[in-house]
Write a structure and sequence with these properties.
heterodimer; A: mainly alpha; two-stranded antiparallel ribbon; 8 helices; 2% strand; B: little secondary structure; 0% helix
Chain lengths: 212, 10
């Protein structure tokens, strides 16, 4: 554990809390992509199966548990409790276009051809693109509420901080994992356009609105 | 690459 990883994990946790609070307080999931949330739930469920096989630390187990439970809770709020507020007309991204390539890639490029390892690899690939339906939804409606922008900023920062963690670990521990690193870089690049809008607009008190 | 038998990151 180093400061970059801890900051990344906390940023990830913050994103999840912001999203749940937004939905709970406003009693609405307007502007949130259910498709992205389904993909994140698949990511956590396929990656954290090692909860049953490997113990790393109390911290590790606790965070995995929180991510799995909160992603299922988010799905419950979106698709059951506040279903009427779900913006499904704009949330039209076809997730099979992400799922199928990630399955194929995980079968082809992995560290070890075992069930758990291929599922882990699949989850890493899928996480890197899981935000696309959300970004697609924002681009379709042309705007995002500030609370949604804060959520996206925290979620995007997490993998960016992990890149610093990976640089640190390579230097300090000679440890590296190319699959995680390359997917993490792809994931962070997908947020760059959003980061730019967030810094130039949302932080100056303006609403995130895309140019017409 | 560095083969990982266990993934210690989240």
């Amino acid at each position: 554990m180093n400061v970059f990883r801890l900051a990344g994990d906390l940023s990830h946790l913050l994103a999840i809390i912001i999203l749940l609070l937004k939905i709970w307080k406003t009693r609405s999931c307007a502007g949130i992509s259910g498709k992205s949330q389904i993909l994140f739930a698949i990511v956590y469920l396929s990656r954290y199966l090692d909860l049953f096989t490997t113990f790393i630390s109390v911290y590790n187990t606790f965070m995995k548990f929180v991510f799995v439970v909160s992603s299922l809770g988010t799905l419950y709020l979106m698709y059951l409790k506040f279903r009427a507020t779900y913006d499904h007309n704009h949330d039209s991204f076809r997730i099979e276009f992400l799922l199928v390539p990630c399955v194929v890639l995980a079968l082809l490029i992995n560290h070890d051809f075992t069930v758990l390892e291929v599922l882990w690899t699949f989850s890493i690939y899928l996480e890197s693109v899981a935000i696309l339906p959300q970004l697609f939804l924002v681009s379709k409606t042309g705007e995002a509420e500030s609370i949604t922008s804060h959520y996206l900023f925290a979620l995007g920062s997490y993998r960016a901080l992990y890149i610093l963690n990976w640089i640190y670990r390579y230097v300090a521990e000679s440890h590296y994992d190319l699959i995680a690193i390359i997917a993490g870089i792809v994931q962070t690049i997908l947020y760059c356009d959003f980061f730019y809008l967030y810094i130039t607009k949302v932080l100056k008190g303006k609403k995130l609105q895309l140019p017409a | 690459s560095n083969k990982e038998s266990q993934h210690d990151e989240l």
